[in-house]
Design brief:
The complex is a heterodimer of chains A (135) and B (148). Chain A has 135 residues and is α+β, with helices and mostly antiparallel strands. Chain A has a domain of 93 residues: Hotdog Thioesterase (Thiol Ester Dehydrase, Chain A). Chain A contains four helices and four strands, in the order H-H-H-H-E-E-E-E. Chain A starts with 23 loop residues before the first helix and ends with a strand. Chain B has a domain of 103 residues: Thiol Ester Dehydrase, Chain A, CATH 3.10.129.10. A five-stranded antiparallel sheet of chain B has the order 1-3-4-5-2. The longest helix of chain B is centred in the first third of the chain and has 11 residues. The chains are: A alpha+beta (135), B alpha+beta (148). Strand 1 of chain A pairs antiparallel with strand 2 of chain B.
């Protein structure tokens, strides 16, 4: 059961912004757990040789960061789906911000829809998506 | 002239072309959750009575094949990763053996400023030992220029 009740959530409500840890050590930790051993995720120089600006955060880690801000906002909620578009690479060791806003409420199922974005320091959207969540 | 999206869908749609077995290990679930910033002990503490994998854990798995073996050949440089979606049907518990079956769930085309694009939706269906559906993971791929 969610610590956040369906009734207490407002349409248009912003979830607290989060600056996730996408430092190299944490990305390496993620990669080990996800069995992603490509150097493009864990080595800046090798990533540059592949034509990337730096090592990049795995797309599914970005998706996981967005899932976590939902869980941390409404502990006990159930994420039914997350759909993400990896619009542009997110650099390892950068300082991105995760944002989320409630964009729909369904009174019949007590579920909500949340729009999700990750922006870089320049304010450019790198990842965007939508989640459906039951409270 | 290559095949159209409709022809591809008719020939390849909804046919399982790959099946793999994977194990969802508890320690990987904890590390995955912590790296993503989860704080709820049901994701980060393997001794929690409701311990389970974080929402998108199944996205980490890959099959043995991305496309059917007889799918028409194309230049891989024309393929773009257009995103990933997960639909969760039941929690994944630690040390569960999962079967992941892959099929092309949808194939469609759009024409934009840069020309024709064929979208391939690769779906992996995850079930456990008792055949309970755990999740669908959809990987959207764009083939720029279609099949020339």
């Amino acid at each position: 059961m969610s610590a956040r009740s369906y009734e207490s959530v407002e349409f248009g409500e912003d979830l607290p912004e989060v600056e996730p840890d996408v430092g190299m050590e944490n990305v390496k930790r993620f990669c080990r757990s996800a069995m992603m051993y490509g150097p493009r995720f864990t080595d800046h120089e090798k990533a540059k040789k592949e034509g990337l600006p730096s090592a990049i955060v795995p797309g599914i880690m970005s998706q996981g960061l967005l899932g976590a801000i939902i869980h941390n906002w409404a502990p006990g909620c159930t994420i039914k789906s997350i759909d993400t578009v990896f619009r542009a690479p997110l650099s390892v060791d950068s300082k991105p911000t995760c944002r989320a806003v409630v964009t729909d409420k369904d009174d019949d199922t007590h579920s909500i829809e949340i729009d999700l974005t990750i922006v870089n320091e320049a304010g450019e959207t790198r990842v965007l998506g939508t989640a459906k969540v039951e409270l | 002239m290559g095949m159209t999206a409709a022809e591809l869908k008719e020939r390849f749609g909804d046919t399982v072309f790959d099946s793999v077995e994977v194990e969802a290990r508890g320690e990987d679930m904890v590390e995955f959750a912590l790296a993503c910033g989860e704080t709820d002990p049901c994701f980060t503490d393997s001794s929690h009575p409701d311990f389970q994998a974080p929402a998108n854990f199944a996205t980490k798995y890959h099959g043995a094949r991305m496309l059917p073996s007889d799918f028409p050949k194309f230049d891989p440089a024309r393929m773009i990763d257009a995103g990933k979606a997960i639909e969760i049907h039941a929690p994944i518990r630690p040390d569960t053996k999962l079967t992941a079956k892959s099929h092309l769930h949808d194939i469609y085309e759009k024409t934009g400023r840069s020309g024709l694009m064929v979208f391939l939706v690769h779906r992996m269906e995850f079930t456990d030992e008792s055949d309970e559906l755990k999740a669908y993971v959809d990987w959207r791929l764009i083939l720029r220029g279609g099949l020339q």
